[in-house]
Amino acid sequence: MTDDPNLSATAARIASGDRRALARAITLVESARPDHRTQALALLDALGTDRQALRIGLSGTPGVGKSTFIESFGLMLTAMGKKVAVLAVDPSSARSGGSILGDKTRMDMLARDPNAFIRPSPSQTQLGGVARRTREAVALCEAAGYDVVLIETVGVGQSETLVAQMSDLFVLLLAPAGGDELQGVKRGIMEIADIVLVNKADGDLKAQATRTRADYAGALRLLRKRAQDPDGYPLAKTVSALETEGLTDAWDAMQTLTDWRRDHGIWDQTRADQARHWFKEEVQLQLMAQLTGDADLRDRLDHMERRVIAGDMSPAAAAMQVLAKPA
Ligand SMILES: Nc1nc2c(ncn2[C@@H]2O[C@H](COP(=O)(O)OP(=O)(O)OP(=O)(O)O)[C@@H](O)[C@H]2O)c(=O)[nH]1
Ligand SMILES: [Mg+2]
Predict the structure, then answer these.
(1) Buried b vs exposed e over 143-156: b needs ≥16 C-beta within 10 Å?
(2) Which residues line the pocket of ligand 1, CB cutoff 6 A?
(3) Which segments in the chain show pLDDT lower than 70?
(4) What per-residue confidence (pLDDT) applies to 96?
(5) What's the rounded Cα separation, in Å, for the pair 170 and 159?
(6) Neighbours of 138 (CB within 10 A)
(7) Which residue puts its alpha carbon closest to atom 7 of ligand 1?
(8) Closest-CA residue to 298 (of 307, 289, 286)
């Protein structure tokens, strides 16, 4: 695998399912320190990409029941003998108290399950860095032999798109709504959802959840047919995370979709498209880092920025000047 004995040992521990080694490796990929970056990349390289998990992106507004769902759904999967990893994407400090750690009470059973691994997101990171560290954490979980990786986002700003671009399927969790209000769900989010789950379909909320499901099923039918879907998808279902109702149904729907996509070459195609997307993102990110890392270039960048702000130059012309090789 590699010449570095420490690195090989770490890689072997991760591959054998050592959760502490996995946790430490995720800490490494989260670090911005250049020497850590080098180590992280070497480690990811040593681990390779032979193992694949089903990556499920999960989004929903605060309070919709994401944590409760992950606990119930995760426990159902581990009971089936699957290994489940949970990662959270939290692009800002919008959630006070910092992400899923504060949810320990709602995921304490799953957190104690030896076949589950829960990783809260570090707070206060910007979106670019979030994408990279989450992608790398997903890769580490796959290398560690997890069968399912759940990537949770509360859905602020662009985080849904970001999560969708690193997931094999994207699940949108909704709460029962009154009347025909579509809960302010943006069209863009509906377009990336593969499965819509209306949660809290229990007790007094059950009838309302059923109506909400029908509304969304109707809305999904109005969207353009997508090449990555078999008939009947994207679909909407009701679940109760609290009473663990509809979860096996939801899992079956995910399996059906995944199998179909594998059989039709869409799984591999999507992963290839995602790899291309992230490669281009990385090139841009690293080019920007090079620009701002070089004192001369940074001065030129600052100077040109001031000229653009002052209206002396167009953004395009200024950018060209920044990048122009000195004569
Ligand atoms: N009736 C009912 N309540 C639920 C269900 N799922 C979650 N809840 C309740 O909804 C509230 C919010 O649940 P959480 O799981 O914390 O929601 P969340 O989406 O993780 O919320 P944030 O982490 O704040 O974004 C809690 O009081 C849960 O008990 C459900 O299936 N039925
Ligand atoms: Mg939560």
Answers:
(1) bbebbbbbbbbbbb
(2) 60, 62-68, 103, 106, 154, 199-200, 202-203, 205, 240-242
(3) 1-3, 90-106, 122-128, 156-157, 178-185, 326-327
(4) 44
(5) 12
(6) 20
(7) 65
(8) 289
